[in-house]
Known about the structure:
- The structure holds 2 protein chains of 2 kinds.
- Chain A is an alpha/beta fold.
- Chain A has helices at 2-15, 59-75, 88-100, 117-125, 152-166, 183-196, 214-228, 240-253, 270-277, 292-303, 324-330, and strands at 48-53, 78-83, 105-108, 130-133, 146-149, 171-177, 202-209, 234-237, 262-267, 283-286, 311-313, 318-319.
- In chain A, helix 5 packs across helix 6 (183-196).
- The longest helix of chain A has 17 residues, at 59-75.
- Chain B is an alpha+beta fold.
- In chain B, 69% of the residues lie in helices and 9% in strands.
- In chain B, strand 4 (425-433) and strand 5 form a beta hairpin.
- The radius of gyration of chain B is 58 Å and the shape is rod-shaped.
- Classes of the chains: A alpha/beta, B alpha+beta.
- The A-B interface holds A 45-46, 48, 76, 78, 80, 96-97, 99-103 and B 140-141, 144-145, 147-148, 151-152, 154-156, 185-186, 189-190, 192-193, 196.
Amino acid sequence: xxxxxxxxxxxxxxxxxxxxxxxxxxxxxxxxxxxxxxxxxxxxxxxxxxxxxxxxxxxxxxxxxxxxxxxxxxxxxxxxxxxxxxxxxxxxxxxxxxxxxxxxxxxxxxxxxxxxxxxxxxxxxxxxxxxxxxxxxxxxxxxxxxxxxxxxxxxxxxxxxxxxxxxxxxxxxxxxxxxxxxxxxxxxxxxxxxxxxxxxxxxxxxxxxxxxxxxxxxxxxxxxxxxxxxxxxxxxxxxxxxxxxxxxxxxxxxxxxxxxxxxxxxxxxxxxxxxxxxxxxxxxxxxxxxxxxxxxxxxxxxxxxxxxxxxxxxxxxxxxxxxxxxxxxxxxx
Amino acid sequence: xxxxxxxxxxxxxxxxxxxxxxxxxxxxxxxxxxxxxxxxxxxxxxxxxxxxxxxxxxxxxxxxxxxxxxxxxxxxxxxxxxxxxxxxxxxxxxxxxxxxxxxxxxxxxxxxxxxxxxxxxxxxxxxxxxxxxxxxxxxxxxxxxxxxxxxxxxxxxxxxxxxxxxxxxxxxxxxxxxxxxxxxxxxxxxxxxxxxxxxxxxxxxxxxxxxxxxxxxxxxxxxxxxxxxxxxxxxxxxxxxxxxxxxxxxxxxxxxxxxxxxxxxxxxxxxxxxxxxxxxxxxxxxxxxxxxxxxxxxxxxxxxxxxxxxxxxxxxxxxxxxxxxxxxxxxxxxxxxxxxxxxxxxxxxxxxxxxxxxxxxxxxxxxxxxxxxxxxxxxxxxxxxxxxxxxxxxxxxxxxxxxxxxxxxxxxxxxxxxxxxxxxxxxxxxxxxxxxxxxxxxxxxxxxxxxxxxxxxxxxxxxxxxxxxxxxxxxxxxxxxxxxxxxxxxxxxxxxxxxxxxxxxxxxxxxxxxxxxxxxxxxx
Lengths: 333, 524
């Protein structure tokens, strides 16, 4: 319990005064910018927003998609939603379609960080602002108006801190990484190592991608177990789905997940809580998928010509098995 | 003026109707009955009630039809708009892509000049149709979605302009191909955006349909309630109308029955304004007329009686006259001239007052004067046994009194009291004011008095209201008593105190009147 409070204190110092709600709001320090006086103030009902989603690889992603669609429905925003089904060319085509339709704002969760310059430039030429959501794109700052999402680096660092405490600074650890080249995979990888290097007793013996899916996580973990067997004492998974896959693989191998092999993952979706209640997962670091409200708030501000911050973080916590069952009841995803 | 009183029998009639009605049904009918009572009690004419009830029923029935018709119209209008838009949108979406793509292909492949191509025509047609659809829809969301179609059209137009530009600047075939590809992309997006709109409208139609079904279901319930209430109201109205016709007639009937029982006091009350109540009011007038007629009839009867009495009185006087004349003869034979003069004077005075120009009413003074004459005559006849005292207050002497009231009492005192005593006695006649409105007259003697049995019989006779004159006590007390009652009213009369061997006092109270020469016809 004291660990949670301690970590919350760290977060509070990072993100300013926030409560642990699912709704990150723009803090009061970001005053409304100068409004363009020639146009009347637009409301949610006037907006046409495009969103290019990367796919539905995980529970987290599905929750994220639902949040965007449901919020649009609630606010009365006209949403043009495209699902790229895990392919970058589909996502690029979706952005082009949105450009042809001259939507007011384009939102995008890039499947990977690179390869966006051309299509972002097309949007900019067409005068359509882009808000990058959840995953970053490796493009010049002037090609998008804002990035809304989690601090993946910090998630990686927190995972390392929690892991170090779980294994008392000694472990042979394997890593289940996310989609190669994606912002969360890159940052969680880096953030984790940034902290773990201070613990010489913890050795990262292997790292492979499970592509953020349950099946991928299971497959990679089976490979690890075949390769290293009982050497492995800890697993760090870049998301819950891969951790759940790993749990299956460990059980099939005949070991007890959460006991013989400590597991920490990122996302804190429902599945993770259920696994923690069953004692098979040791901790999950929250990555909040409910970005719909914040996204549309940003979009409306952009359309009305108000200034918005370049980087909007979402609110996140860390959860342990001790109070998993209570929190599960309040979980929306 | 209208008294809002319901007579008890009226209530009974109502409850009886209620009982008869609710003997077939249970509780709800009781409420209907109460409602009907309430409606029957409303102060309106029967005609108005009938008209109003019919209007309410027609309104209730009509309302159901009108409202359902309006609803059907409303929904069909909404449907119409949506369906028109869907068909319009479908006609666009199926044709615009192939049309534009083919046209542009013909231009790129050199079959047609760019300037003579139909591409802008097609786009303008679509634009017009979309704007028309925007005007035709009532949903903000649909407008936004159509706006999206318009935006896409603008992009497409920009692509076409680009193509025109390229061709005007002698672009290469490869460049043209690239732009054509762009155009094909745009047309497919246009198709997509139109389909997006159509899908929304189709879903909305489903939503509308659900709403319509719900509202029709609600309306069904509502209309059933309305129809039932109309039927219920019609029943209650019919009931209350029949009641409001029946009850006054019943009342009228009750009044007529009381008339047949010969009591004209019960009259119709006007607790309503309907026609039958008016009839009842005219009936009241009729009863009044009948009452007047009856009253005058009764008066005639009474007058007849009075005439009979007068005749009787006239019969009284001969006896006394014979006796007096006998006395005068006897006195004349005895050469008692003075006494003859005295007695004849008294007799003449007595008769003059008795006749009193045929008036029934004389002053107390005159009446007392007559008694004085009478007693003077009698004292001469019963010299050794009779004495009398007369004591009349000055202020009552001028009040009128019915003629021949005191004299029979004095006669009575003389013949039944003094004469039977054998030792002689005194008769006292007193008149004084009892109070402001009444005068007290007393005739007292110290004669033999009545035995208790005879007194009781006499009192009975005096209290008897039958108006028949019994000859029990001769022409005296009973006769006087009847006359007093007849002329002054039933509350007046004689009262007798008597003790055997001591004497008798007869007391009489009359209202003080100062009329002169009142005719007895107007005395009541």
